[in-house]
Amino acid sequence: MQINDVVDAIAIKLHKTFGDEYTIYTESIEQGFQKPCFFIALLEPDQEQVVGNRYHKTNPFDIHYFGRGNIDAHNTADKLMNEMEYVKCINGDLLCGTKMKASVIDGVLHFFVNYNMHIYKIQNPIPIMEDLEQRILTKG
Fold first, then answer.
1. In the predicted structure, residue 128 carries a pLDDT above the cut 80
2. Is residue 129 part of a domain?
3. pLDDT tens profile 70-79
4. How far apart (Å, rounded) are the C-alpha atoms in residues 115 and 54?
5. How many angstroms separate the Cα of 111 from the Cα of each of 84, 85, 134, 137, 140?
6. Predicted TM-score (pTM) of this structure
7. Count of the separate structural domains present in the chain
8. What are the φ and ψ backbone dihedral angles of 8, each rounded to 5 degrees?
9. What's the burial of 112, exposed, middle or buried (CB within 10 Å: 0-12/13-18/19+)?
10. Does residue 131 contact residue 83 with C-beta atoms inside 8 Å?
11. Could you tell me if 100 and 112 are in contact, meaning their C-beta atoms sit under 8 angstroms apart?
């Protein structure tokens, strides 16, 4: 699964939760954007080897919400805490949101959430030896 699959899953969940009147941006926001809207930002993804070909991938996101003041931001933070616990990817995988927290900075809600996963990297298979022929000579 790729990071863009997770971004798409977040965008789909935001759309299902808040509806059509909220624009969802996954690229940079242009001047003159319409409020209310969301901007999905990936912070610093991390990948750590666990055992062999198994890895733990951490995907921290900051979902910005540009709304209509602090009361609206606080209500949206509560809704995000409840609704963003699980997101479903297009391939059917279900991801659990962890380390959720929210803060309002300069009138913009920043909702932080991690969607972590375990991955298994498939290595190129080692070529298998074809046929082996062995002759054994015995005396006797």
1. no
2. no
3. 899 999 999 9
4. 17
5. 10, 12, 67, 76, 84
6. 0.81
7. 1
8. -60, -40
9. middle
10. no
11. yes
Minimum mean pLDDT range among 5-9, 56-60, 65-69, 133-137: 133-137
pLDDT for 29-43, tens place per residue?
A: 777 778 899 999 999
CATH of the domain at 108: 3.30.2000.10
Other beta carbons within 10 Å of 80: 23
pLDDT in tens, 42-51: 999 999 998 8
Pair 45, 59: CB distance under 8 Å: yes
* Structural domain of 69: 3-120
Q: How confident is the model at residue 3 (pLDDT cuts 50, 70, 90)?
A: confident
The rounded radius of gyration (Å) of the Cα atoms in the chain is 24
The pLDDT, as a whole number, for residue 88 is 93
Place of tokens 């298994």: 120
Inside any domain, residue 75:
yes
- Cα angle at 86 between 80 and 102, to 5 degrees? 30
Domain-embedded: residue 133: no
